Amino acid sequence: MLLKLLEKLGRKKLLLDRGPSHPEYLKAKPWMNRYYVLFKKRPKWFPFNITIHEILDNDHRNGVHNHMCPYVTIVLRDGYWETLSDGRHWRPPGYIGFRSADNLHKVELKIKTKPLTIFIPGPFGLRKKLRAAYNQNFNFVKN
User: Fold this and answer.
1) By three-state DSSP, how is residue 19 classified?
2) Positive or negative, the Cα torsion across 143, 70, 24, 116?
């Protein structure tokens, strides 16, 4: 019910599995529905936002990624596999994860699931490493 309300209020955005700078952008597919609970466009000075993510497909096909800022994620529905530098971990409903902006990871779904998470990005400007490159793996982490 909340997601339908947010959609009616224009606070839903469909994200594709790759952005315009990706070499194979023309092959982009739906990846995630993002629902903006707090700010649709957060001011840079505000320390956090609250969004709901409905994940539609596995992460970015190849490689791992990091984020623009530290974040908290709370799994509400279905769960997912998260690959970190120390291995692959199951994240069930109820899981709460705290991550730095430099944390590299990859998310993979069980077949026929659409995990739902609360995603709370923190302050901008705390990432110390470069943005992860396309097809980057744990063996090729840049400092």
Assistant:
1) coil
2) positive
> 2-16+31-136: what fold?
Jelly Rolls (2.60.120)
Q: What is the pLDDT of residues 3-18, one digit of tens each?
A: 999 999 999 999 988 7
Tokens of 99: 């991550």
pLDDT grade for 134, boundaries at 50, 70 and 90: low
pLDDT tens digits, residue range 92-131? 999 999 999 888 899 999 999 999 999 999 998 778 877 7
Q: Where are the domains of the chain?
A: 2-16+31-136
Taking the C-alpha atoms of residue 96 and residue 132, their distance in angstroms, rounded to an integer, is 23
In angstroms, rounded to a whole number, what is the distance separating the alpha carbons of residues 118 and 98?
12
